[in-house]
Amino acid sequence: MELSASYDPKIAESKWYAIWEKEKLFHGDENDPRDAYSIVIPPPNVTGNLHMGHALNNTLQDILIRWQRMNGKATCWMPGMDHAGIATQNVVERLLLKEGKTKYDLGRDEFVKRVWDWKEHSGGQIKEQLKRLGCSLDWVRERFTLDEGLSHAVRTVFVTLYKEGLIYQGYRIINWCPRCETALSDIETEYKDLAGKLYYIHYPYEEGDGHITVATTRPETMLGDTAVAVNPNDSRYAHLIGKNVILPLMNRPIPIIADEFVDPAFGTGLVKVTPAHDPNDFEMGKRHNLEEVNILDKNAIVNENGGVYKGLDRYQAREKVCEDLKTAGLLEKIEDHNHAVGHCYRCHTVIEPYLSKQWFVKIEPLAKEAIKVVEEGKIRFIPSNWAKIYFEWMYNIKDWCISRQLWWGHRIPAFYCKDCGYIMVELEDPTKCSVCNSKNLEQDADVLDTWFSSALWPFSTFGWPQKTKSLEKFYPTSVLVTGFDIIFFWVARMIMMGCKFMNDVPFYDVYIHALVRDEHGQKMSKSRGNVIDPLIMMDKYGTDAFRFTLAIFAAQGRDIILSEKRIEGYSAFCNKIWNSTRFILMNLGNDFKPEAIDVNSLELFDKWILHAFNQTVKKTTQALVEYRFNDAAQTLYDFWWHEFCDWYIELSKPRIYAGDSLSGTIAKQVLYVVLHEYLKLLHPFMPFITEEIWSNITTNEGRIVVAPWPQYDERFNFENEFNYAELFKEIVYKIRNIRGEMNVPPDKKAHVVIKAGKKIEQFVRQQENNLKILAKLEAVEYNAAYTPQKTDASAVLPECEIYVPLKDLIDLEKEKARLDKEIARIQVELDKVLKKLNDSTFMAKAPQNIIEKEQNKKAELEEVHAKLTTSREKLG
Ligand SMILES: [Zn+2]
Ligand SMILES: [Zn+2]
Q1: pLDDT digits (tens, 9 = 90+) for 504-520
Q2: How far, in Å, is the centroid of ligand 1 from the Cα of 177?
Q3: Which CATH entry fits the domain spanning 37-142+362-395+451-513: 3.40.50.80, 2.130.10.10, 1.10.1740.10, 3.40.50.620?
Q4: CATH top-level class of 182-353
């Protein structure tokens, strides 16, 4: 058993993933009689590249699935990708543009073929990247939202909902992206506050002189006005209700109507009504039977309904309309006006509210059940405050617009009879009209919203609508791990569809993780230039260090502040594990054979470390049960570094070096057991280094991937000995502190006096050798009646006092002079900082981060000053 001189992550990482995959260790068998534990991956877009969000999301899932695999569950982590309708279509359209072509040049079939080609050759790069990250996905089950099986599931759901009246076609105002030429759902529209204008326009009365004034942010839409509205309770305008005004530029009479919806405080209290271009006006139009005049085409260019403005795009039309109104003396004024404007979430073009025929899901009946299962606690959000946000959205949910005017996606399975107009929605493509037998049929041109297929992901991937064994074994899944940004897009819809089609929730727990931000707490973005690339980090520091860093900062409800320095820091932890293991193996020697621990032969520190390890097992497991990834990682880090390496390994050295003693043999067995069991606890966080070491220290135990998860062992519960050992550590700490504060040269051995009761004294006597080694002592004196000298440094513990006479240890006068000089130097620096912080001009003008820096400096200097002063006082 021997490890190479240093750990090379590249070697371990390139070796182990392929072996795990070859040995099918990630495969979840549906016939496995053990309890199931399953997760479905949030399917990354086929266009995706691994970014920090993916890295965090998948590291956490992998920790859970690896832990449960070792915990004896039949585990399955379902991999796959999303066809990502708009995103993918945009990528291929951009490529075509480079060839000087548009999708129309190719035609629908050819274009879709191009997208599949692109998918085969350039898509799905993220798959290899997930493997780099060590994700133990069940690759033989991999799915794609547009594959045959999933397409069949989509069609089955569509047909079922249509037949139940839960999918319908409607002529509605929807959010339209004129660039992508498609409808978007409400949540695909991102609102940004923009500096806009409010235009006040005169509409002359049809009869007699005079006019009214209406205010609008989008004057070009007046071309489609079919009324002006006032609030019925607005006494200023009561006399006008029922009269007509002339719509300027278009010169047609339109009525003044009364509607409760109008806000009397907005503008003049009189609003233009454009049913075809505003969702509220559309509703108003329905209430008052107004005509819907659509003035824009699908690229937001004015059509024939816009009279002389035909052919202008919406912004040109706005300018021309204003110009003409001004010329006609009908533009009263223009005011600055900030308002929220919707943008396409894919291409950031300003959304146009657009009247068109679309397909909708009637959402309320589905939402009802989805609310109930969360209310009843069948699904649990972690952290729990996300449930509130879920409920708020679900209570106010609107029908879901699911048709998209794209070519890449699941084509809507509705067929129109061109002779009698009948619509057929069936599982199989119809060959003739079921009403008039005409063969003149045409399929709906639209495709479904990408999120329609991902809503079915937890059951479609396991074979639904077939009643498969996999579905029976792994549905409902155990947990969903995702970011908060897709709770509405995805989580809510999976719950609705799962309840509807499986009669059961899709998952029991929903763990919502936070964002990864840069070291200054800023969101990472390309434009800020602060993006940390996970692939580069894995290259530089190794995957294990990178994963461990993400985990140790993944506290619930708190964003992760990530910097390269932190990752570098945890790569030092990898090295620490490697080097300490190497040391252990060298000392175990070649003829070492692991044996069961004989509790009766254990010494104090054996019992202490076994007890501490027992606690580590308990704490790590409990933290994972409660999704406290950070606590689990921190526990593992502290145990190895600060208990095992700092203390136990040090204390085991003299025992082992003493030769063939029983004590040395026991120490070796304990070192081995702790190493062996600890690697298993660490494995879900650091899969590669643990497997690499495991393969060096075990024979016939198989891979660590499937090794049994360590359990709390009652035999190693040594509370009493643990407390004594902690007291010993405390004494060593105190003496080390004194040495440090008093500047005792490292090679100078001290003399200490222990003033304690019989019991403690007896204990310290037993550990005297260890104490001498760890605290660098030449002699320990026990004196319950000791009278401290003026030049003694001292420390007090609950049942024990420690004195270190300094006069033989350091040159007192020299040390006094050194401390005086140091205190004076710190005082000068402190004065400088205080002067700044008391300067009102500096405080008013300096940026917040500079002020914080000065404040931190002050705190640090004060602390050093206090410590030096205490040391100085001890010397008299
Ligand atoms: Zn767009
Ligand atoms: Zn027909």
Answers
A1: 999 999 999 988 898 88
A2: 5
A3: 3.40.50.620
A4: alpha beta
